Amino acid sequence: MRLRDELPLDHRLSRVYGIGAALCGLLLLLFGCLGFAGSLSAFGTDGTRIAGLSTNGLLSLISVLFGLLLIGAAMAGGNLASTVNIIVGVLFVASGFVHLFLIGKDANILDFGMSNVVFSFLMGLLVMTFGMYGRVSGGLDHDNPYWRRRHPEQAVREAAASRPRGAAVEVVRNQPAER
């Protein structure tokens, strides 16, 4: 199964993907900018805290970059926002697991603490949820564009079965003659 562009551009799910990406992106951008405002050293691991999370200049830079990426995806909207949300969410969850094992070690160059790990897990799950909403599920409605794309033969059969017999012929006969 591949995530492709099955969703029409004006579909209501595009708003969910875009709003989710924008909100999470703004939160990350705010955190990164607060880090830059605090004049943090790039690789400092002295436990400087901003908004309850330990941070340094490098983590602030990464936060700003991911925030801008999510905001850019929100502006693009549609399937791109959904796909970016899913990928960024997976990266955040993976980062949480990696940094869980790096706490207290010299390799912890982003100065992650336990609060950062929890934030990374929660942000990752939130962003992934926004990206997967209405797109990944075992119970998608049959009128969902993703379901129709994954089950084309059954979608054609259901569309034909729901159309009254001879409906296409009647529509053609009832149209006014061209002048």
From TrEMBL:
<feature type="transmembrane region" description="Helical">
    <location>
        <begin position="84"/>
        <end position="104"/>
    </location>
</feature>
<feature type="transmembrane region" description="Helical">
    <location>
        <begin position="116"/>
        <end position="136"/>
    </location>
</feature>
<keyword id="KW-1133">Transmembrane helix</keyword>
<keyword id="KW-0472">Membrane</keyword>
<dbReference type="Pfam" id="PF14325">
    <property type="entry name" value="DUF4383"/>
</dbReference>
<feature type="transmembrane region" description="Helical">
    <location>
        <begin position="16"/>
        <end position="37"/>
    </location>
</feature>
<keyword id="KW-0812">Transmembrane</keyword>
<protein>
    <submittedName>
        <fullName>DUF4383 domain-containing protein</fullName>
    </submittedName>
</protein>
<feature type="transmembrane region" description="Helical">
    <location>
        <begin position="58"/>
        <end position="78"/>
    </location>
</feature>
